[in-house]
Specification:
Elements lengths: L1 H46 L1 E6 L2 E6 L4 E4 L2 H10 L4 E4 L15 E2 L8 H7 L3 E4 L7 H5 L4 E3 L7 H15 L3 H23 L4 E8 L2 E5 L7 H4 L4 E2 L16 E3 L1 H7 L3 E6 H5 L5 H5 L2 H4 L2 H4 L3 E4 L1 H6 L4 H11 L3
Parallel strand pairs: 3-4, 3-6, 4-5, 6-7, 8-10, 8-12, 12-13
Antiparallel strand pairs: 1-2, 8-9, 9-11
Helix pairs in contact: 2-5, 5-6, 6-14
């Protein structure tokens, strides 16, 4: 009897030890699998981020961000063209009229003065700004990864392509972004074929409450000369690089008469920002009316929203080329 009890006890002890060992091995295996899955998850998450370098630093953004603040209207223009879907916070009073469907977006403040508190409460995944909001970069970058959208007028198409490509990468629309960019390159080639074979010279001006500013190559509206190939009516507009500013060079009616452009491109700032003046009244005088441009019906009033507010977008650049493509 004692021998039987001893054998039974030995069997139970062995069974218990085996069960414990098996259980520990199972837990170890599960822990290893969980760790592996976690590492794979972290790796996958890392692959779902993209780092955008810009002149103020860099921003690491998760792909397909769901909540986006956009102050650069050229960027919003590109997102709109690519069909980007997100929860937007925008400067609602400054959205160009051709960009529709954003009435229910969160109001992020003014174009030159973001509403920091509202943006913070919005909890964005990414923020896009440009020159008008440059002073707020550091403050906004503390809220969410902030991309400063560069558009150097001296290398307009290079920066434009980079910006379009970046939006394509962030929102998984690279192929469509490149396709749309290539269409614009084709348009440019068509216009340049005409301007290369023309001797007409152009002058670009902006009117603002009765005042006039002129712009040449390398300037804010220099795409007309630098990219589309229109010859300059005044090749000596700037005496130095420092004179090329976003505000242009203040000029007079006598200046326009003296330069006597064959084509006069006009940006009406008042029409863009709701000012008191208008380009038609400002330029309706004998000095301007006697230029070659006026006599040959080549005073071209450009869309002020596109040229002054939302330049640098897929739609706006395409429209800018169309407007400058005069026969």
């Amino acid at each position: 009897m004692k021998k039987l009890l001893k054998l039974t006890f030995t069997f139970l002890l062995a069974s218990s030890l085996f069960a414990c060992t098996a259980n520990n091995e199972s837990q170890t295996s599960q822990a290893t699998e969980s760790s592996s899955e976690a590492n794979q998850g972290e790796s996958s998450q890392a692959l779902e981020e993209i780092t955008i370098k810009h002149s103020k630093g860099e921003a690491t953004i998760k792909k397909n961000p769901e909540k986006v603040v956009v102050f650069d209207m050229g960027t919003l223009d590109t997102m709109d063209k690519l069909g980007v879907e997100a929860d937007f916070a925008l400067p609602l009073d400054s959205i160009p009229s051709y960009l529709t469907g954003y009435e229910n977006a969160t109001n992020a403040g003014g174009l030159k003065e973001p509403d920091i508190e509202t943006i913070y409460t919005f909890e964005p995944d990414a923020i896009f700004i440009s020159g008008r909001q440059a002073d707020f970069y550091d403050e906004l970058n503390k809220i969410a990864p902030t991309v400063y959208v560069d558009l150097d007028y001296k290398k307009y198409m290079e920066d434009f392509k980079t910006n379009v490509t970046n939006i394509g990468k962030i929102f998984d629309k690279e192929d469509l972004a490149l396709e749309e960019y290539n269409k614009i390159e084709e348009k440019i080639a068509s216009v340049k074929e005409k301007t290369n074979n023309s001797n007409e010279k152009a002058l670009i001006i902006m009117t603002n409450s009765g005042k006039i500013s002129a712009y040449g190559a390398g300037s804010r509206f220099g795409i007309i000369h630098d990219v589309l190939g229109f010859k300059e009516a005044d090749e000596n507009m700037y005496k130095s690089e420092e004179e090329i500013t976003t505000h242009g060079k203040e000029v007079s009616f006598e200046y326009i008469s003296q330069i006597n452009p064959d084509i006069l491109f006009v940006v009406d700032r008042d029409a863009a920002v709701g000012g008191d003046g208008n380009a038609s009244d400002t330029l309706n005088n004998e000095l301007v009316n006697n230029t070659n441009a006026a006599k040959n019906n080549k005073v071209i009033t450009l869309d002020p929203e596109i040229w002054y507010i939302s330049g640098g977008g897929l739609q706006s650049v395409s429209d800018m080329i169309d407007e400058a493509n005069i026969s």
